[in-house]
Design goal:
Mean pLDDT of chain A: 97
Radius of gyration of chain A: 25 Å
Largest sheet of chain A: 6 strands, parallel
CATH superfamily of the largest domain in chain A: Crotonobetainyl-coa:carnitine coa-transferase, domain 1
Helix content of chain A: 25-40%
Number of strands of chain A: 12
Strand content of chain A: 5-15%
Distance between the termini of chain A: 32 Å
Oligomer: homodimer
CATH topology of the largest domain in chain A: Rossmann fold
Strand order of the largest sheet of chain A: 3-2-1-4-5-6
Number of domains of chain A: 2
Number of helices of chain A: 17
Shape of chain A: elongated
Chain lengths: ~400, ~400
């Protein structure tokens, strides 16, 4: 036993971001993930940049590489009846199937939940979609932006007097993905008692709606419709981002000792007891008119690194707003192995994001590059289905794989 | 067997958001989560709003309610030696311990990993922190804002000419939380083979860094440092948010058939073949100067609902940017049970966010309100440790519970 999920076999029909992120975390933790791609070019992200050294090519996409490391890759044309037979034979030997097609597509392929369940009552199907498998919008086309818009999330992000702002990295995808990975392991745990698999249905809309902190209960319990407040926090104060001479710094000083230390740094010792600023509620009421301008003026006279040094010395939670290149080189992220090297047969040595969950006894790891298109056809179809080299040649000739 | 995680016992030392979200998804799926609070007021969020009907009170916080439904609640003063003895006795009967104290705090309590492991070699400890248990910044105080700033995420969000923008709902917390819940189930799965528990270490910084879509590989593979692009997507086009007469609408029309349909709606049929706009790459190059102003002018003449109707009729992915109250009442989220009622002994009937992972055979559910402070002391300490009513009185008198 090397990794936590060793022994868990996953058939991965997913494409683009949400589905592949889900199966990535499973593969990082040791699951045997077999990525199934259409033979006519495979996953769309093979044709989305960034490309290694800006040179496009099907085996040169960083987008594809980051999400599909550690996986085996086979091709299968799901519009061909023979391919469906082969897939169902794989299902009989699998623990989990993951897909992120539009709802209804699996049924069109002849791979609906009832079919999979009949082939293998122990198999777990996880479906990730924009709106979910049920509900009036289920069949509508949907991306991350739909979830961010409809959930209300976008209405909460941006300047108070500005437009709503999408979270640029597609949070609808990543949030649904990790919820689905959790849901799959819930189903695996349940199966050890019931002996049965089940269908795990995760919607991007639901996933985003579930991570809006107190916005939902603000409305349902108190009738407050929260809106945009910039980078500050609406419940605790001071908690905001300030412009410095050469960048921006976040600071969070709402606990009494942090606030006291900040007052000293600001040369406003009286604010510790001032009835306008002594408590969190008082500060929230007097932030824009009184406190914020003072901190803004103070921050504007410092470089970001110098400001962080001052705040750090007073143990006030703070951080420089880093650009991505700064983050990639930051000693904390490096110490946590959050940027890991992988040797790739076409791209050479590349660096990918590391593994978030650190397990002390059976740690995950990025051990293998993403698969070339169809790289493991012979290995997987040979090992699992006993297909011979001649049979594979025929399947390729017939457009099945 | 009712729910997927029935039989999994979790001791929950967490406070505020990240930790309680993690144990919430475990409890929603059926784990027996025993929330341990200090007797002097309990979780800080009991004193953070929103309060039911705007009336403050320790048992009236919506913030606390949403995160702690389905949990049992006991009190324990971890600064008291007797409390530590009691907690270790609980550990011998637990599967998982979850905590989100600053790194080093558990050791100060006398509850470091080695102590827990010695008490119960099968127990799993999950620690959620800002920077993680290791690395040069590990001991620094850290909130969600630290992770959003240092990871580079904030540098990616906001208007191109505006300041970096924090994701207002604390994504550092929720992202770390769900990664940790996944990590815990990985450890549970591993334990069925190894017989041993392990320590799961999740940092908010790592969790946010891992959900920045292609930003990391853009830098490591191609040297591109991505920045702020407003609500548009930097890789696909058209994918943006537009102002209407009475609000905003997101639309995503980058696939050929969606783009063709949008060109027809815009009365620009020539754009389908125009060498400035025919392909995704061409559109990315001519978006700001050519395409965006035309869509902006078109959108500005419509109400949001009317625009969605037009786009829907052409099957173009789109959604109105809803406010939170609109989202709470939306038929899709209602059909998915994403707003669920709970009867609370003090607040009466309240509505909380529902459950993201839909399992077909052993679905989760919100069956019980959040615990009153110490509500289950007699039940839990009696059932698990055999303590009598007299012993509980003495423990309360001595400030232990």
């Amino acid at each position: 036993m090397r990794k936590a999920l060793d022994g868990l076999r996953v058939l991965d029909l997913t494409r683009v971001y949400a589905g592949p992120y889900c199966t990535m975390v499973l593969a990082d933790m040791g699951a045997e993930v077999i990525k199934v791609e259409n033979p006519a070019g495979g996953d769309d992200t093979r044709r989305i940049g960034p490309y290694k050294d800006h040179q496009p090519g099907e085996e040169r996409s960083g987008y594809f590489a980051m999400l599909n490391r550690n996986k085996y890759g086979v091709t299968l044309n799901l519009k061909h009846p023979t391919a469906i037979d082969l897939f169902i034979r794989l299902v009989t030997q699998a623990d989990v199937v993951v897909e992120n097609y539009a709802p209804g597509t699996m049924q069109k392929f002849g791979l609906g939940w009832e079919v999979l369940q009949q082939a293998n009552p122990r198999v777990i199907l996880a479906s990730i979609s924009g709106y979910g498998q049920t509900g009036p919008l289920s069949a509508r086309p949907s991306y991350d932006g739909n979830a961010q818009a409809l959930s209300g999330l976008m209405s909460l992000i941006g300047a108070p007097d500005g437009p709503p702002m999408r979270v640029n990295p597609a949070i609808g995808d990543s949030s649904a993905a990790i919820h689905a990975a959790f849901g799959i392991l819930c189903a695996v745990y349940a199966r050890e008692r019931t002996g049965r698999g089940q269908w795990v249905d995760v919607a991007q809309l639901d996933a985003v709606f579930s991570i809006m902190e107190s916005a939902v209960v603000n409305y349902t319990l108190a009738g407050n419709v929260l809106g945009r407040v910039g980078s500050r926090h609406q419940d605790v104060c001071v908690y905001d981002v300030f412009r410095c001479r050469d960048g921006y710094v976040y600071l969070g000083a709402y606990k009494p000792h942090h606030w006291g230390n900040l007052c000293r740094l600001l040369d406003r010792p009286g604010w510790v007891t001032d009835p306008r600023t002594a408590t969190n509620d008082q500060r929230l009421a007097h932030y824009e008119g009184l406190i914020k301008p003072v901190i803004e003026a103070w921050a504007a006279h410092h470089d970001a690194d110098a400001l962080v040094t001052l705040l750090d010395a007073e143990s006030i939670p703070c951080a420089k707003v880093q650009t991505v290149d700064q983050a990639v080189h930051h000693p904390q992220l490096r110490a946590r192995d959050m940027v890991v090297p992988v040797a790739h047969p076409v791209m050479g040595r590349i660096e990918l994001p590391g593994i978030t969950c650190k397990l002390s006894d059976t740690p995950g790891g990025v051990d293998r590059p993403p698969p070339l298109l169809g790289e493991h056809n012979a290995e997987v179809y040979g090992r699992l289905l006993g297909l011979t080299a001649d049979e594979l040649v025929a399947l390729r000739r017939d457009g099945v794989i």
